[in-house]
Amino acid sequence: MFSRFSVTPAFLCLVFLYAFAGNLSLLPAILSAALLHECGHLIMIRLLGLKVDKIEATLLGFLIRTNAGLSSYLSEILISLSGPALSIIVAVCSSVAASRGFYSESLYIFSGMNIIFGIFNLLPASKLDGGRAVHSLLCLFFSPDDTYRISSIISVVTAVFVILAGAYILYTTKYNLSLLLIGLWLLVRSNPDNS
C-alpha cells in the first residue's frame, strides 16, 4: 500500500518522555487514537483512488504523504477532514458503549483521547488537518499569494490562542507545559508550505 514508514527522533523523544514521566498507562490510548485517526485519512485516500507514498511518525502524530499531484483541492479537503471525523465518531461510539453497560475507565480514556485528537486536529493551524482543509478551501477562491498570506495569518492567530490556553493551564496546574509547547511549535511552523 505504501513504500516507506519512518519514525522521527521527536516522536521517539515523546514516547520516552511519557515513559520517563510515568504516563505509560495513557500511551496505548494515545497511540490507538492516533492510529485510528490516521486510518480515517487512509480510508479516504483509498476511496479517492490515490496512492500512499510514505507514512511518518512525528511529534504531533503521523504524516501521510500521497501522490498529491493527482489530487484536487476538494480531495485535499476530504482527506484532511476524514481523520478528525473518524476520531469523533470513534469517541462518540466508545463513550456510548461505556455508558451502556460496557463501562470501563479505559474505554472512557480512549473516548477522551479520540475526541481530543478529532477536535485538536480541526484547529486551522497549517500543520494540522483543519489548517490543511482551510488552505485547500482558500485555494478554490483566492490566488496562491493571497491564500498563502491568509493561511499564515490564520495559523499564527490559532497558535497564539493555543499558547494563551497553554499559559493558562501552566499557571493553574503549575506543571503542565504540554499545550504551551504545542502552541509554540505551531507558531514556529505556521508557514503553510513548511512540511
What topology does this entry show?
Layout: E1 4-7, H1 9-21, H2 27-47, E2 52-58, E3 61-66, H3 73-99, H4 105-121, H5 129-139, H6 144-173, H7 178-188
Parallel strand pairs: 1-2
Antiparallel strand pairs: 2-3
Helix pairs in contact: 2-3, 2-4, 3-4, 3-5, 5-6, 6-7
Could you provide a short overview of the structure?
This protein is mainly alpha-helical. Helices cover 67% and strands 9% of the residues. It is built from seven helices and three strands.
Task: Throw out a few tags for this protein.
single chain; 195 residues; mainly alpha; 2 domains; 3-stranded mixed beta sheet; 67% helix
Structure description:
By secondary structure, this protein is mainly α. It has 2 domains: 122 residues, no CATH class; 73 residues, no CATH class. It has 7 helices and 3 strands. The longest helix is centred in the C-terminal third of the chain and has 30 residues. It has a 3-stranded mixed beta sheet with strand order 1-2-3. The chain is 67% helix and 9% strand. The mean pLDDT is 86.
